[in-house]
Amino acid sequence: MPELSNKTCPEEELDGQALVWNQILSITDSLVLKCAIRLQIFDAIHRHGSAISLPSLAASLPTPCLRPTILLRLLRYLSHIRLINITNDEHPSFSLTPSSSAFLVTTSKQSLASFITIFLDEDFLAAFHALDVCVSGGEGEGSAFEMVTGETVFGQAARDPVLSHKFNEGMAESARITAAAMVEGAEKVFEGLRTMVDVGGGMGTVARVIRRRFPGIRILVLDLAHVVDGLVGSDGVEFVAGDMFVEVPQGDAVLLVRILHDWSDEKSLDILQKCKEAINPESGKLIIVDIIIDDDKDHELHHARVASDIMMMAYGGKERTEKEWRSLLLRAGFTRCNITRIKALQHVIEAWI
């Protein structure tokens, strides 16, 4: 067994050991978060309205808590990862942090609870256990999920209405955060537009946020039939069933929010070609909202952006560097682009023919 060099000082050895142990056990954070969401701990504290004692919290959970000492250990860990405040006294009380209050309470407009539930679903996590298969799986663009299940995430959602609903709810939740940051930090991108096509716009979450901020824009949401069936348009937002690989309706701008990261470069080029056909070459533009993984490595969200690329390796698709984005757009026939940073994982990329 290889040993540490004799030149390694005790401090370096301890740092190295801590680094490796922290990586081994980092999965604990995600699974404890999933457990807390399933037990509705954050919702229970929120409903109480103030700091709550352990007995009161145990009694207020939807599922009876028969082991309060185990609940206490869970709460201590949630405090350790800064998602719950805990008083240090003989009879501790618990309250939400700003982060858990904003993003983990199900009734919050910024809630990610549904996204967490679908992302940490046991069947979905199986793809992460097959990343090595994805690396050694030979030629092709197949994701780990596809190699494990025999179908893509989208294919499975298309034939499973329950999964489709959960998936769309989760995507809609995270989309709200992106959309809010987009209209706040990239306001000029939408100025002067009269019509816009939101390609792969799902339940219209992003479209409605944009419409509320820019009521002069009429937005057409394009998505597959099983996604938009039953959705009713209103207030300048309309829905149409279609396939972005076949045809994209015309508009002053075509919007792709977190779409291209789901696809390989070749598939993305097919999508971009259809978008280019829908845009007036003299006055129209393409708006992409997606992650640029190598932008500002000191940013608070840099780790999440890089980790998102591994998530896409598991589920299908890829995140891209700025150089890769510019190259992809140039190959698709877009001659220039502009990048705007917003307060979200994603960036806003404008492209013109």
Automatic annotation (TrEMBL):
Q: One Pfam family from the UniProt entry?
A: Methyltransf_2
Q: Which segments does the entry list as coiled coil?
A: none
Q: Enumerate the active-site residues.
A: H261 (proton acceptor)
- Please give the PROSITE patterns that the UniProt record associates with this protein: SAM_OMT_II (PS51683)
Q: Which GO terms describe its biological process?
A: methylation
Q: GO MF annotations for this entry?
A: O-methyltransferase activity; protein dimerization activity
- Is S-adenosyl-L-methionine included in the keywords of this UniProt record? yes
Give the highest taxon in the source lineage: Eukaryota
Which residues belong to any copy of the O-methyltransferase C-terminal domain?
A: 131-334
**Keywords, ordered alphabetically:** Methyltransferase, S-adenosyl-L-methionine, Transferase
Instruction: Provide the O-methyltransferase dimerisation domain boundaries.
Output: 21-105
> Any keyword S-adenosyl-L-methionine?
yes
Give the protein's recorded name.
(RS)-norcoclaurine 6-O-methyltransferase
